[in-house]
Automatic annotation (TrEMBL):
It holds the Pfam family GntR. Coiled coil: none annotated. PANTHER family: TRANSCRIPTIONAL REGULATOR, GNTR FAMILY, UXU OPERON TRANSCRIPTIONAL REGULATOR. It comes from the Bacteria. SUPFAM superfamilies: GntR ligand-binding domain-like, Winged helix' DNA-binding domain. Keywords: DNA-binding, Transcription, Transcription regulation. Residues 12-80 form the HTH gntR-type domain. InterPro entries: GntR_C (IPR011711), TF_FadR/GntR_C (IPR008920), Tscrpt_reg_HTH_GntR (IPR000524), WH-like_DNA-bd_sf (IPR036388), WH_DNA-bd_sf (IPR036390). GO terms for molecular function: DNA binding; DNA-binding transcription factor activity. This is FCD domain-containing protein.
Amino acid sequence: MQQNREMEDHDLSENLRVLQAIRQIVTNNLIPSDGRLPTERNLAAEFGAGRRSVRRALDQLEAEGLVWRKQGKGTFVGQPPDPTEELAARIVSEVDPLTAMEARLCIEPALADLCARRASAEDVAKLRQLAERTHQAGEAEATELWDGALHRAIARIAGNRVMLTAFTLIDEVRMGEEWQRERHRARTPKARAAYDDQHNRIIDAIDARNGAAAADAMREHLNTLFENLKHSLEKEGR
């Protein structure tokens, strides 16, 4: 019986150690630009632990909304994409970045409003974590990864499946190469500071369960993005 207790204590200790280690990888952006974590086998070898402990840690992080899994592809940081890639791929060549921004301005303020009405304290904590990771991200690809995860989380918390599908289509379009390129050009240090502040104000309004204020804050944020993107394109003569 004593031996069983010692084994249980060892398992709990290992589970906690592995969870903390993987959480450190996630929170410190110690991942490739595609957001994919190492395999369970590689994580187990790296931490000198059993794969069961790794799997339990990933289960916990997935429940917290920090990682997601895709069968046959692996485990990724952030929120999972919605299955609308095929439709997005068909129309992406017909949609320029400013058109995508117009669509975002139509739908995301309403999603922020609904999010404020339905978010739990746990949801708000997740949003703050994603906003902080966006702020801390160094490279452009990492910034896009976390910024997208934050906006997707708000859309999911809003809880309207039809609006989420519309948002996801827009989100897939904005992940195109042209969009990424233009966003990177428009994301100056001054603009990044403004975006961080606007993210925090959106989340503060959600935390206060003030739907109108959340919608207004999101609209201001997207208008700033729109104007910066438009200015960047005008500088290129487009």
